[in-house]
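Office hours follow-up: a student asked to see two folded examples consecutively, so here they are.
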Amino acid sequence: MFSKILIANRGEIACRVIKSARKMGIKTVAVYSDADKAALHVQMADEAVRIGPAPSNQSYLIIENIIEACKSTGAEAVHPGYGFLSENQAFAKALDAANIAFIGPPNGAIAAMGDKITSKKIAADAGVSTVPGYMGVIKDTDEAIKIANEIGYPVMLKASAGGGGKGMRIARNDAECREGFERATSEAASSFGDDRVFVEKFVEEPRHIEIQVLADKHGNAIYLGERECSIQRRHQKVVEEAPSPFIDPATRKAMGEQAVALARAVDYCSAGTVEFIVDKDKNFYFLEMNTRLQVEHPVTELVTGQDLVEWMIKIADGEKLTLKQDDVTLTGWAMETRVYAEDPFREFLPSTGRLVRYQPPAESDTVRVDTGVYEGGEISMFYDPMVAKLITYGEDRDQAIGEMRRALDAYYIRGISHNIPFLAAVMANKRFQDGNITTNFITEEYPNGFSADDLPNDDPATLIVVAAYINQRVAERNAGITGQVSDHPLEIAESWVAVCGDEHTAFDIEFDGVNGDYIVAIGDRSYGVVSDWKIGDPMFVGEIDGAPVCVQIDIEGVGYKLAANGIQRHFKVMLPRVAELQKLMPFKAPPDMSNFLLSPMPGLLVKVSVEEGQTVQPGEELCILEAMKMENVLKCESKGVVKKIHAEQGANLSVDAIIIEFEKDE
């Protein structure tokens, strides 16, 4: 067995590999860019080597630097994780030439499956059903439109070397095909150094279901069930689960056998994933094979009891699979959500910055957190915005969802925006809970984007009751402070008003000395509150009327910001007379910024498409902003004249930075 391995990656996946290596008694080497000098994976590894500046194309993608790090530390093997060089044939060849083991499949399999055009041809030859499409390389936009019309809209434009949702566009007409081809080509070139794009039929109302395979160097290959990955946004997976609520045993067996047949066709060894698109009648079609460890692999590990990283290391060292197909059983249900540094209330725009507070839920038999960050660390603009993967387990799907909802409530992140409110909304969505999902789920359920109105609100009184309890505890603490005027002790009122925006909710609160809880009365309804919460704790964990409750707390001046189930509310608890006077306070309107184009996210201004003095029309391209490896086209909303361009092409912009100022056309 290897005595030392290097992880050619960063973030949560590097930390994940280190954990399995440590369990196996193998020492680890981390690599890092300047932006990751203090990263968690660097702290966890036995050794760490700097490999370059922050941009990935100057550090994590430089093969020579990785090889040199192996030689300088004596690492015998490299685990590539996912992304970066994980599916790069040149990297695997370079390691082989340097006599360093690659913890992954052979070069031929990487080359064959890494090219989507070649992989579909091999899959068809191996008896795997494939989606209708044009497998040749498209030379220009006009040819893309011609082919799209021959196949029939809608079509999917895909980068041949793509992955992770980059270099992919759906087109439903010629205009969308033209723009989609240009954007897919540009993203493919910048992300993968390969601008080839192909076209295939877009299957509507599809499910994205994938099969996990394991194969060794001795001809043994098995599949470990499926993962349901249909909850996606912009082709990027957000929620995954195992098994799928849609797949029956017969379909699972057929998909698994085809996946294994494909693995054998390319002499595959290591862990790999064969992705399928499945229609409403359970017809399935090959999409691609990922010749690496998948982001969502933990859900398979929880329902099968297998450590996929450990198997990858053993297989790379030449060990045989001791697991037979009949030994594979799926027990219970696992759910995974991807916690991203993005703002769901601003069209999921990336959010970078420092994690001022970071407290993930406690891990247990039913909760697992795969993360690569820590409190005080920074979410960089140079890499993927993932903060962590939150995985929960239950005896059945309902239990796994329930565990996930509780774990999301207990995930405390401050300093950046995050998508936990959105994840909470998905978990509470009736259609999701029923398992009635497709890859169009997010588009169909949130057609106008995500807003506070989409959040679940099982009992709107819950946050009011918690605000009342917190206020009472603070008032009791204040009344007990020494040094008060003896003739005028601070008295604690029983009647208060919770003010949230324009809503005023009157309540009474008292301590029940018999039962040891607080009674909060709102109208004709009373709530019993029990908790050992202490002032300063960021979490209220307790019970309301016997039901468990977890609420996140931020004390802001004289008010409280409370969050639970994805919902955030700002409360000020006042005496009744103060609340009445508060209604008379004048409203201060925010400044009018309607004549400005503001940067919706931190990012690089790749292109300014207009000039000062130019008249622009609705829908016209204004500029292109690149953030976290994705290009975003900002378009004009209403007719106007460009008065001034405030930001130059190539500038690094912060959120709400002014890009363009307009004069409205009368």
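And the second, which I mentioned at the end of office hours:
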Amino acid sequence: MTIQQHPHVTDREAHFVGGGIASLAGAAFLVRDGNMPGENIHVYEKLDVVGGAMDGAGDPDEAYLIRGGRMFNYPAYECTWDLFETIPSLEDDSRSVKDVMDEFNEAHPSYAKTRLMREGERIDAGEYGLTRQHRQSIVRLLLTPEPRLGDTRIEEWFDESFLETNFWYVWATIFAFQPWHSVAEVRRYMYRFLQEFPRLHTMEGIDRTKYNQYDSMILPLRRWLEDRGVSFEYGHEVTDMDIVPSRTGRTVEQLYCETDSGTETVPVEPSDLVFVTNGSMTDGSSIGGMDEAPELNETGASWELWKSIAEDNPQFGNPSVFADNVTETKWESFTVTLHNTELFDHIVDFTNEEPGNGLVTYLGSNWLLSTVVAAQPHFANQPDDVKVFWGYALFPDREGNYVEKPMSECTGREILQELCYHLQCEERLPEILDDVTCIPVMMPFITAHFQPREPGDRPDVVPDGSHNLAFLGQYAEQPRDVVFTVEYSVRSAMTAVYEMLDLDQEVPPVSKHYREPGVIADTVRAAYR
């Protein structure tokens, strides 16, 4: 048998399609662990900024914007900490990004006192309200092998009463699960985060970054890569690639990029490496304004590329399972910038939650509104006299309780009016909204990774027979790990790099806290609260 020989890593090129955290992590692992020169690495991004879903932009004059906020868990994010323990922070290059996070979370520990509210009253979210039948359904789910679950939906596995429990409201609004999502993904989450089951309502196990994740994680990682010569090709949308089959497998030989100057081709040698982020949770996002509702897009560049290359390569997965039903995969978020801090102060007083404590969900809301008031400042360039908070809703197509139309049709001003109704301060409109800006964002694919799916719908990180192509991100299959996390993207990048370079290093295994007797005992006790 002939063994394929590759040139030395210094003579190979690497091409990353998409500039999200998976690609940035992959580039870092190539440099740090694979000893590939940075100048051999190219990242193609259609926008003029990298970071993907880990975003954060704006200033106090034009208002701030984050599409979402990533939460972290120190017992579970093995690959993420492996990476960011070695990336210097921007504030002090003698300390790592993780060092800064550790310090911040020690000073600002999460402890939600008011996780759920209804009609202005705090609900004891620690009383999960699970019945014997609910507990039996959870145990049966944990004992059922994932392949046997297939594309079963949550609402098909649990009865309707389960979806009205405090446990479900806490679970659904932390992780963004909907009743029609995959019960197999719920099973993975329960195993991955069983150690958090007893304290989901307080969010004590959740850790955060000092600022938004773009300022705290993406910027220092990008600087580290740039300092090592990695090239970032902004305004480059990869629309297709030549994938040539042979008796031994498939090889990428060329990329096609759309730029402002037209179509560019990028030749790829057989020994070069191509890493593709197939699908994106924030692809197709539409930004509204204080007096403008966002639009709903039904496609995006990452999805079109994935569909194009999967058409003739079934082992590349089935993107339509995730991308073809935006009604089930969309929701809407909003970022509020306040020069007049009256509303900010009212939220803190009304919820009895200090900034940085947690997530408040308003159960009386038809939209199922939630707000997050982060520790201030939330942006590195945010002045002391400007405040910022973020919110989202899982049911944007329902009519509001106060504003008589769906959230998806609302301007930023109308979203704030609806929020003020649930905060019981609507009588102070419009003065409470004076000098306040709310920017809504519609994200058509934000929970696409939770769609019911069958084995094979997500491709392996390195598909069988692939000579130089690997997949990264939320839609590359990684047994036992959970999507909608930074960890999933970083783990996919580490897996891809180590396998493609055949490195004699192991990817940190997914922790098995669910096997610890203390974790099991605490979980059982919590299930009876």
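Two things to take away from it. The first helix runs from residue 21 to 32. The chain has a mean pLDDT of 96.
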